[in-house]
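Section 5: illustrative case.
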């Protein structure tokens, strides 16, 4: 089996050594190092690594700019940002580069290898199906705000399928950001539904029915898209049904729903739906579940 090439980029020598030692323990990676943004770009171009673990606060050239240049020079390389930065704006900027992930350094010891394995197994795809693992509701709502608000402010559409507390808190954050939530709801460009209620309509014998889910999702997304004034609208979709299934211990059902979401994205390649799923970090002592879920997504964010 071919050994994956990984470039580790961080200006902190101790942390860089920790990451490299962690990777070497797997015995299946060829690991290279860089300590600043310019060196990262040069080594990426020279070695064309399979995966680049890239800090953001780098000297000489910051990680975001280095990532942009690397994507041009090494289109086949997967980029995962590994950073102590935690502001929603920074995370959104990192994921906006079409990177494969963002992992907070505080989570590296527990989740880094799991995420790397899943990302290397996953397919390269231009479709957006992102998973976000969050430590608390504050982090989740900040991420949702920066996912949903720009879509609505640009006269696109949004579909939110979440728990009642998250739906209510998100709506208030959107109002605070200047979004006319009531107007968008009345117009039909903002659809907010209860995740448990939706699950009850698609579950058959403890498993989600693929056809029922696809039919319902098509109808909702098409309705939201038609309500916009744009010829080719983007529909931002947030789904929390999978997190409810995982909380029930039904990992297989959650993965099935994620796979069906990918089928939906393949059907709608000419439109522009983006799917964001979210799970609380707490249940993920189950390593196979974490990897199975990550593998079904284009990008992984662990904060």
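Designed sequence:
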């Amino acid at each position: 089996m071919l050994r994956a090439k990984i470039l580790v980029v961080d200006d902190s020598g101790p942390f860089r050594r920790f990451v490299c030692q962690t990777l070497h323990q797997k015995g299946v990676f060829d690991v290279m190092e860089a300590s600043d943004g310019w060196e990262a770009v040069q080594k990426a171009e020279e070695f064309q690594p399979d995966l680049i673990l890239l800090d953001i606060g780098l000297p000489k050239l910051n990680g975001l700019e280095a990532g942009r240049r690397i994507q041009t020079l090494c289109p086949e390389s997967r980029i995962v940002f590994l950073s102590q930065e935690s502001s929603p704006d920074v995370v959104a900027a990192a994921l906006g580069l079409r990177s494969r992930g963002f992992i907070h350094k505080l989570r590296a010891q527990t989740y880094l290898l799991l995420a790397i394995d899943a990302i290397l197994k996953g397919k390269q795809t231009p479709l957006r199906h992102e998973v976000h693992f969050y430590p608390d509701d504050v982090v989740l709502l900040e991420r949702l705000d920066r996912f949903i608000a720009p879509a609505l402010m640009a006269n696109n559409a949004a579909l939110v399928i979440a728990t009642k507390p998250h739906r209510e808190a998100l709506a208030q954050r959107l109002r605070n950001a200047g979004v006319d939530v009531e107007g968008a709801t009345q117009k039909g460009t903002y659809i907010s539904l209860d995740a448990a209620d939706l699950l009850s309509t698609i579950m058959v014998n403890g498993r989600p029915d693929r056809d029922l889910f696809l039919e319902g999702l098509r109808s909702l997304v098409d309705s939201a898209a038609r309500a916009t004034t744009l010829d080719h609208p983007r529909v931002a979709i947030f789904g929390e049904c999978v997190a409810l299934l995982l909380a029930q211990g039904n990992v297989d059902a959650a993965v099935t729903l994620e796979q069906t979401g990918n089928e939906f994205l393949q059907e709608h390649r000419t439109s522009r739906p983006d799917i964001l799923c979210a799970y609380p970090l707490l249940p993920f002592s189950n390593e196979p579940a974490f990897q199975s879920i990550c593998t079904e997504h284009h990008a992984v964010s662990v904060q």
